[in-house]
Amino acid sequence: MAAAAALRAWFWNERFWLPHNVTWADLAGEAGPPGSGLQYPRAGHVLSAFPLALGIFAVRLLFERFIAKPCAINLGIQDSGPHRAQPNAILEKVFTSITKSPDGKRLEGLSKQLDWDVRKIQRWFRHRRNQDKPTTLTKFCESMWRFTFYLSIFFYGIRFLWTAPWFWDTRQCWYNYPFQFTDIKRKDFLIMFVHHLATIGLITFSYMNNMVRVGTLVLCLHDASDFLLEAAKLANYAKYQRLCDAFFMLFGVVFIVTRLGIYPFWILNTTLFESWELIGPYPSWWLFNGLLITLQILHIIWSYLIVRTASKALVRGKVSKDDRSDVESSSEEEEVTPHSTKGVLSTSSNGSNRINGHVGSGQWTEEE
For the chain, which terminal residue's Cβ has fewer other Cβ atoms within 10 angstroms, N or C? Predict the structure, then answer.
């Protein structure tokens, strides 16, 4: 018990989390007049995110079932998947228990065991891998949900922030900090991993030490481009290529303007310089700004990928499909011209975007 108490005292050290001359006790009382019921943000409030997430997930299921799916069917998108592999107990056991992509030595052994030629076994594994990929209908429903969610949350943020003084003057984020009122009742793998750590850390830490004002600015700014990417993917799944290209180009412009222009000169300017001037640095201030700078580095990487893909798409004349819909093919099943290329909007297997992970986190790459 003594060790736990010591660890807790060390973790919640006021001199790390809060500016000088401010204690946790100062934030424990009511934020407004006695009896107002207003509270400052507290660490325990973060736990409310879990039931909220379950509620949003339930809404998503209903949305995809009763809204997105009928829309997809009306657009002629079929719920058909790739060619299914021929049932084979031996190959299925290898696929599920050992490897999904057997090497040459294992292929030779399976060939002798089944009396199949190696190319037939390779084709079986290719079909089996494709079999687990989501259908175009499933991907359309996922993208329509994200498009609706991102668009709604962005305009909700704009509506809320439009009348907030710190939206027009970022110095207001630091006046009287941390005593700012709030009404709780009204409330590739490595890159994405780093992004998720940074965003989760920012959301959690900024709430716990009451950096709510600047946090709202960061969230709203990151929502500005996400729905455009999902709109491009919806158009792609519905085979409206020109509309897809237009939305992606618009997404690229908005992404670069917001992440490489507005973010550093508006957000980082106030968190690094205005906050230093008005409240001064303290230990968690360095952590907070370190995470924000990490996001800026990711913004630069993603912007490079977007520009590279957009430039190559202009040469090809189009931005092509989501690679989750691509099925693997052998030379005997698909003819490919010597210099053919195709653009790919890459997403993770669970549908999450890799370009904008935050908020949300799709990577445009090219296969040649």
Answer: N
Residue 317: what pLDDT? Answer: 67
State both tokens at 276.
């230093």
pLDDT above 80: residue 360: no
> Are 198 and 296 a contacting pair, CB within 8 Å?
no
User: How far is Cα 364 from Cα 212, in angstroms, rounded to an integer?
Assistant: 33
The pTM of this model reads 0.61
Q: Where are the beta strands (DSSP E) in the chain?
A: 342-346, 363-367
What residues contact 365, with CB distance under 8 A and at least 6 apart? 305, 309, 344, 346
If one counts every other C-beta atom within 10 angstroms of the C-beta of residue 215, the result is 18
Q: How many CA atoms lie within 13 A of 16 on its CB side?
A: 9
Contact 341, 312 (CB under 8 A): yes
pLDDT digits (tens, 9 = 90+) for 103-138: 999 999 999 999 999 999 999 998 888 888 888 899
- pLDDT bucket at 320, cuts 50 / 70 / 90: low
Q: Measure the CA–CA gap between 268 and 296, rounded to whole angstroms.
A: 9
Which of these, 16, 56, 51, 358, lies nearest to 197 by C-alpha position?
358
343: β partners:
366
pLDDT at residue number 340:
34
